[in-house]
Design brief:
This protein has 298 residues and is of the alpha/beta class. It is 47% helix and 10% strand. The longest helix has 18 residues.
Length: 298
């Protein structure tokens, strides 16, 4: 059955993490998912808009939601921070008629309106909930073969409870996904903590220590790679990993994979089709474990 969603890739997936956009589309095609990319959607503002101006925060995210409403489709994102911003604003505007009215006055200038009709979900949830783990498992062509994967959720896909609800007894979505693909979930301290991305521009050493602690814990627990649903977490853990090795005086060598790349490998997609060569920390050992050839470096 074909599924259609409005698609908001966000800034990172179109720039520093282009491999995320590429691999998301590649996995979507396997399942007959049509991702209708929003035209000129702007930015959710990371968490900076919110800290500077609530009005700008509500208007920028309200506009993205209105564009999805215009298509009549639920909205899918691939970034934890975009997810939090959009779900936060969607909830606020649904509950606050005054705020919604003010936003709609601004949106009217662009021929748009917001009415709260769309849901916002992460591509991870599309895979685990809309597609479902059993159909996903049935499409696995190259099982992860016990690959020891350390999930790193980060902050903005789980917190705050007012947006995402209280955690239940069921294992988190990424853990269940890894197991469905034939991998082994590595438990370690820090899987749901902050990567430090939002302080990296003004306190780089603090960010390096924060993320380095998590990677070091994952390495000590036997992880062969990290999988994350967030390109911001990916950027810190991949790009700054050499500095983390110097800070902690140990070799880490942990490839950091986007969720869609991990799924793509299990589906049998070519590493080159998911731009695995773009990573700072090469995934050659992961590919060797799966019996796959490594692509040339970009």
């Amino acid at each position: 059955m074909s599924r259609r969603y409005a698609y908001f890739p966000g800034c990172s997936a179109k720039n520093s993490c282009q491999e995320l956009d590429t691999s998301t589309h590649a996995v979507a095609r396997v399942f007959g998912i049509e991702l209708v990319e929003l035209e000129n959607p702007g930015c959710t503002g990371a968490r900076e808009f919110r800290s500077i101006s609530e009005r700008v925060h509500l208007a920028a995210n309200g506009r993205i939601l209105a564009l999805a409403e215009q298509l009549g489709l639920d909205l899918v994102v691939v970034c934890d921070t975009c997810l939090l911003n959009l779900r936060e604003v969607n909830q606020r505007l649904r509950d606050d008629a005054v705020a919604a009215g003010e936003v709609n006055e601004l949106l009217a200038q662009d021929g748009l309106s917001y009415s709260g009709k769309v849901e916002v979900k992460h591509f991870l949830w599309v895979l685990t909930e809309d597609i479902g783990l059993e159909p996903l498992r049935a499409r696995v062509a190259t099982p992860l073969n016990g690959l020891r994967v350390a999930p790193f959720y980060g902050c903005h896909i789980q917190r705050p409870e007012s947006i995402f609800g209280a955690g239940g007894g069921e294992a988190p979505a990424l853990d269940r996904l890894i197991e469905a693909l034939g991998g082994e979930v590595v438990a370690y301290e820090g899987a749901s903590k902050c990567c430090g991305f939002h302080v990296v521009t003004f306190a780089e050493k603090v960010s390096i220590r924060m993320a380095g602690q998590h990677l070091s814990a994952a390495k000590s627990a036997g992880a062969q790679c990290i999988a994350t649903p967030c390109p911001l977490c990916h950027t810190v853990m991949d790009m700054f990993q050499p500095q983390m090795e110097k800070e902690f005086r140990r070799h880490l060598g942990l490839p950091v994979l986007h969720v869609s790349q991990l799924v793509g490998l299990a589906l049998g997609l070519r590493p080159a089709d998911m731009n695995l060569s773009r990573h700072w920390v090469h995934a050659r050992e992961v590919l060797a474990h799966l019996g796959r050839a490594a692509p040339a470096r970009a």
